[in-house]
Amino acid sequence: MIKARLNSFDVTMIVVSLVIGIGIFRTPAMVASATRTPLLFFTAWVAGGLITLFGALTFAEIGARFPEPGSYYKVVAKSYGSLPAFLLNWANVFIINTASGAGVALIGAEYVAPLLLPARDLNPTNIMLIAAGLIVFLLILNYLGIKSGAWTQNVLSLSKIILILFVAVAGLLTEKTAPELASAALPLTGHWWQALGLGFISVFFSYGGYQQTINLGADLKDSAKNLPRTVIAGMLIVITCYLSINFAYWRVLGIPGMASAKLVAAETAGRIFGPAGARVVSVAIFLSAMGFLNAILLQLPRTYLAMAEDRTLPSFFKKINARTQVQEAGLLFLGGFILLSLIFLRTFENIVNYVMFLDSLGLATVASTIVVLRQQAKKSSLDYRGFKMPLYPALPAIFIFFLLSITINVLLSEPRQALTGSILLVLGFPLYLLMRSLSRQQENKQDNTRNL
């Protein structure tokens, strides 16, 4: 039985931390390269934030109607059955989160590599080795105990918040800008709507993560009332931070400068403060990457525990070291999957397309359960008095439409990554059948043992 120990402020900060990882320090360059003009660039970020807010309202109501632990899994199982719920969790836990972890490790390695290696050794292989070393280091740290992992998380999360505020404010106040950058643009290579669609892929990658907060329904005090507030408040903070820091990037670098800057945050700080500023920001972003990756290693194995209790993963995932409180098998399994993602995906751009194709499908599926939950509420005699999102069903419909459009954009622009993601998603079906079969066999053995 989970006891509610989190207050609204705690969960609001969790929302912010789940969303603000490392993408905002890298993806603006990809958005600038895709959109080509200041108007389309800011349209992508503003519209993406608005549509994400529609999603936050949708998930706020889902969480209020279904305030249970692991709701991201359970609400799909209740609405569509256990198989879709397993496939969604298979994609989310074993593919999306591991690919995100690999992508963040790559970004951290890209920022810190110039400080560790001479220029002649700055190549993709060495950057990947640094990323792999970061993963292994944090894996060992979390293996030592959940207390050491949690302490590390607090330090790294604080560094991340300070970094966002530092870069955004410095970029807004600096006078080291060129007036001609404000109107500078790159020539469009196709239709404006195609450029905007490509920009949305990276924008939604940066805005994702808040949906996982509904898993904390049992941990939040008075969750039916407070969960909607925390999700909405957290996303408003995120949107404000993102628009501020993107305005700072644009003010210092312009669209051409952002599009050509592989490490946009470090280059912005370098323009403002010189080489010392770029080095400081590189270290800070590396620490932010460590914080996001550490959060995955610290928390995600608990999802394996829930799936094992639901008999869709082997029972050894439930085992917890009594002294360290670490799910050792789950942690090692997760670390191995992140390393595999790093090896096979290689570049951050591939990881973004790979993640967004699957994540947008998963988000659309869970968001659609609001329709089922409302229909079930009408048929039941229960009088629901909790949070109801405004402008239903228009807002969730717009949100789901844009998610599906992201899926189509990835399919058209990067068919190989989309195909790979689809194959891995489908592979969850035989795994589901296998896990169910093994669970039945284990239950039969236990029944036979009791009958002896």
Largest sheet, strands/sense/barrel = none
How many helical elements? 17
Which architecture name does CATH use? Up-down Bundle
Rounded mean pLDDT is: 81
Distance between the termini: 32 Å
Query: How much is the radius of gyration in Å?
Result: 22 Å
Order of helices and strands: HHHHHHHHHHHHHHHHH
CATH H-level superfamily: Amino acid/polyamine transporter I
Question: Given this structure, which CATH class is correct?
Answer: Mainly Alpha
**Shape descriptor:** globular
Counting structural domains, the number is 1
Structural class designation = mainly alpha
Q: How helix-rich are the residues, as a percent range? A: over 70%
| Assembly type | single chain
CATH topology: Amino acid/polyamine transporter I
* Strand-residue proportion: under 5%
Write the layout of secondary structure elements.
Elements lengths: L7 H12 L7 H9 L2 H28 L5 H10 L1 H35 L7 H20 L2 H28 L18 H16 L15 H38 L3 H10 L1 H25 L1 H9 L18 H18 L2 H32 L14 H20 L1 H12 L1 H24 L1
Helix pairs in contact: 1-9, 2-3, 2-8, 2-9, 3-8, 3-9, 3-14, 3-15, 4-5, 4-14, 5-6, 5-11, 5-13, 5-14, 5-16, 6-7, 6-11, 6-13, 7-9, 7-11, 8-14, 8-15, 9-10, 10-11, 14-15, 14-16, 15-16
Kindly summarize this structure in a few lines:
This protein is an all-alpha fold. Helix content is 77%, strand content 0%.
Please describe what this structure looks like:
The protein has a single domain (8-378, 392-441), classed as Amino acid/polyamine transporter I, CATH 1.20.1740. It is 77% helix and 0% strand. The chain has helices at 8-19, 27-35, 38-65, 71-80, 82-116, 124-143, 146-173, 192-207, 223-260, 264-273, 275-299, 301-309, 328-345, 348-379, 394-413, 415-426, 428-451.
